[in-house]
TrEMBL record:
Record's GO cellular component terms: membrane
Protein name listed in UniProt: Sodium/hydrogen exchanger
Transmembrane segments: 56-74, 86-106, 144-166, 172-194, 214-235, 263-280, 292-314, 352-374
Annotated InterPro entries: Cation/H_exchanger_TM, KEA4/5/6-like, Na+/solute_symporter_sf, NAD(P)-bd_dom_sf, RCK_C, RCK_C_sf, RCK_N
Species name: Planktothrix agardhii CCAP 1459/11A
PANTHER family per UniProt: POTASSIUM/PROTON ANTIPORTER-RELATED (PTHR16254), TRANSMEMBRANE AND COILED-COIL DOMAIN-CONTAINING PROTEIN 3 (PTHR16254:SF14)
Length: 745
């Protein structure tokens, strides 16, 4: 009992300290295990008890993964999970066996195969925890990683079944594999039967008792019972727990099950990570640090070089492939199970056992940092043109529908539950719709319904260009992760600065950033549900429909501020920094003699002229303005946090330091398109004589993929160009009519 109390206390303290220092809590758990383990303080004496709780943690992690993932979710990535996961395991085992035997790390081929099995497995527990903390389980890379991890977990049962025969003749290995596959097939058949005919009535019976504890006990007993059964027949208990979760995922009580089991899962999972730390000998790590660091580097580089090309081969974007490759590059916790069994059969020496243990532990410690900093590094890499070209090399559409219509269309990014409803309503009203989606399963549905689509990454600039964003009427963004949504907004506005765009905010913290990046409307589902419930109650209480609609509109226009919980300036700044870290950004100090001093952000037309978004302002006197609104006045010495591309930053510096003609009070700006058959095509700006005739100034030319900022009078005009004009509104309308009338005869 004392050991368990120490275990959970160490986990709580380690996790708290990690949180205070803004580090992954997994790191805190691992370090806590090292400190209380036998190699440091030595206050944990009965490791078997700890191991039992740790095994429960892994079991419940995989059980809840099964409940959340479901057969429908698994079906979305079946190609990459079954094909890619299977190829990855085979390649890792084959290459490791060849290299280890050739280099003399092992003395026989079976030992090399066993070492390959250890390295082929990644950490379901660590990756799942990291994806949950970053809210990325629904992203393409999250789905791909989970799909491959599930295949690896299923392969564990086969590996365990083959272990006793690895030192035997080849024919016995074949027999062992055949028996293991037969067991898997029989278990799968039994799981389908039980999941279809026995689980639903059992859960209904438990739910009828209306007792939370009885429902929880029944579900836990079911999970552990199936896990125990799979262990008894020679398969892994973890696989049984995952299959038990999949069974429940298809029943109407899946959400209730998840709600009840999650606290139990989190407590036991924390114990699991502490138990890994207990196994780590810091002295051994220190004495062999160069060798272990070399092995860790070799594992990360080797596994990522195997996984990344495979993901690209299955037609995913390069960035998704890189994140997946490095995200799965660690050695998994189930390798501890394999290495224990392998040592019993003499498949691994004691020295190699300790090295594998240390290397595995180090890869698990490094993984949370990979998930935290890799997206930031990739974002920074995109600020260099050469690297951006390389990273977006595979971002072209995977497939394009035959029914594609790109004239006066509305683009919907994401065909999930929200996107599907938006598309349905738009089509019912007779609008031309184009859907951008990255899920193969959803593309099949769009193809069956003959809805125009682009199959690929909606935040890719190449894909947005292919979708003809520049001519679209509007755009609705309902993507599953915040980073993709932010990039999609920013890049769509690069192509069409006047695009009317509505975006779903996945989290409350995303609202301000999305508005700041240029979204015309941001919808947060939880707040919208609150508004609809309240409006109904207000009608019951006798308030007029007009009053209710006006009040709700005020809340929406205020970016849901009355509904948002109070947050300290420090919390808001921290959220802002985390969001900005995944985009190109830089700080800019406004010069004393800048033309922008004394102007509001709106009147300076900062986004229209330069493409940057001002996310934060730090005043000379110490005041900080997060998410400044359009009426914020810029002052001398202001430090502005800008988000944009390198070209945008150059344009902003030009705007701030050169004597650019800015609109006067009462002036406006419009985009005017040069017709394809225009007489102006091939002429220079000075020949249009717009400033003398109409008192208007051309401050930008958008030409296909290129944006010419602050063009001089010698700039050529081409058919299809869009000119950004400043001047009085009535004169701008005259210019628009004048340009439109200059068609070729």
């Amino acid at each position: 009992m004392t050991d368990l109390i120490i275990l959970f206390a160490a986990a709580a303290i380690g996790g708290l300290l990690a949180s205070i220092f803004r580090q992954p809590v997994i790191l805190g758990y691992l370090l806590a295990g090292i400190i209380v383990g036998p190699f440091e303080l030595g206050i944990i004496h009965d490791y078997e008890q700890v191991e039992t709780v740790a095994e429960l943690g892994v079991t419940f992690l995989l059980f809840t993964l099964g409940v959340e993932f479901s057969f429908a979710e698994l079906n979305k990535v079946k190609n990459i999970s079954l094909g890619g996961g299977g190829i990855q395991i085979a390649l890792t085992i084959g290459l490791t066996a060849f290299i280890s035997v050739t280099m003399g790390w092992v003395t026989s081929i079976p030992q090399g195969v066993f070492l390959g099995e250890l390295l082929s497995l990644s950490s379901t527990a660590v990756v799942l925890k990291a994806l949950m903390e970053s809210n990325e389980t629904s992203t393409p890379q999250g789905q791909v990683m989970l799909g491959i991890l599930i295949v690896q977990d299923l392969a564990l049962g086969l590996m365990l079944a083959v272990l006793p025969a690895l030192n035997q003749p080849v024919d016995q290995i074949g027999i062992a594999i055949g028996i293991a596959l037969l067991k898997l097939a029989l278990f799968a058949l039994g799981a389908i039967i039980v999941g279809k005919w026995l689980i639903p009535p059992l859960l209904r019976l438990l739910a009828k008792t209306e007792s939370r504890e009885l429902f929880l006990l029944g579900v836990v007993a079911l999970c552990l019972g199936i896990a125990l059964l799979t262990g008894y027949i020679g398969l892994s208990t973890e696989m049984g727990a995952f299959v038990a979760g999949l069974m429940i995922s298809e029943v109407e009580y899946s959400d209730q099950t998840l709600d009840y089991v999650e606290p139990l899962r989190d407590i036991c999972a924390a114990a699991f990570f502490v138990s890994i730390g207990i196994l780590i000998d810091p002295t051994f790590l220190w004495n062999n640090l160069p060798l272990i660091l070399g092995l860790v580097s070799l594992v990360f580089v080797g596994k990522s070089l195997i996984i990344t090309p495979l993901v690209v081969l299955f037609r995913y974007p390069l960035k998704t492939a890189i994140i997946t490759g490095l995200g799965l590059a660690q050695i998994g916790e189930f390798s501890f199970v394999l290495v224990e069994q392998g040592s019993n059969f003499g498949l691994i020496s004691q020295d190699l056992y300790m090295l594998v243990l240390g290397t595995t532990a180090m890869t698990l410690i490094v993984t949370p940092f990979v998930f935290r900093f890799l997206p930031i590094l990739l974002s920074q890499a995109e600020s260099f043109p050469a690297l951006e070209t390389w990273l977006t090399k595979f971002d072209a559409p995977i497939a394009i529908s035959e029914e594609l219509s790109l004239e006066n269309h509305i683009i919907v990014c994401g065909y999930g539950r929200v996107g599907k409803n938006v598309v349905k309503l738009l089509i019912n009203q007779g609008h031309q719709v184009l859907v951008i989606e990255q899920s193969e399963e959803k593309i099949k549905k769009l193809r069956d319904k003959k809805i125009p689509y682009l199959y690929g990454n909606a935040s890719s600039l190449l894909l947005l260009e292919k979708a003809e964003v520049s001519t679209a009427k509007g755009m609705a963004i309902a993507l599953p992760d915040p980073m993709s949504s932010r990039l999609c907004v920013k890049r769509a506005l690069q192509l069409n600065p006047e695009l009317d765009m509505v975006v779903r905010a996945n989290e409350m913290e995303d609202i301000g950033m999305l508005y700041q990046l240029g979204a015309k409307e941001v919808i947060q589902p939880e707040f919208e549900a609150s508004l609809e419930l309240s409006s109904h109650l207000f009608r019951v209480l006798g308030l007029s429909k007009t009053t209710i609609e006006a009040d709700i509109q005020k809340i929406r226009e205020s970016q849901y501020l009355p509904l948002q919980p109070e947050r300290s300036p420090e919390e808001i700044s921290r959220e802002l920094e985390e969001a900005v870290s995944t985009m190109n950004h830089q700080w800019y100090t406004l010069p004393t003699d800048s033309t922008l001093v004394g102007m509001t952000i709106e009147k300076a037309y900062v986004r229209s002229l330069t493409g940057v978004s001002i996310i934060e302002i730090k005043r000379f006197g110490g005041e900080t303005i997060d998410y400044p609104d359009a009426q914020t006045v810029m002052k001398t010495g202001d430090k502005l946090l800008l988000v944009g591309t390198p070209n945008d930053f150059e344009a902003f510096d030009y705007l701030a330091t050169k004597k650019v003609i800015l609109p006067n009070e009462g002036d406006a700006c419009i985009w005017v398109s040069i017709p394809k058959n225009s007489n102006f095509s091939g002429k220079k700006l000075e020949e249009l004589n717009l400033q003398e005739q109409f008192g208007t100034v051309v401050q930008g030319i958008r030409r296909q993929k290129k944006y010419i900022r602050f063009p001089d009078i010698k700039t050529d005009i081409q058919a299809g160009d869009n000119l950004l004009l400043f001047g009085q509104l009535d004169l701008l309308n005259q210019v628009s009519q004048f340009v439109s009338s200059q068609g070729a005869s």
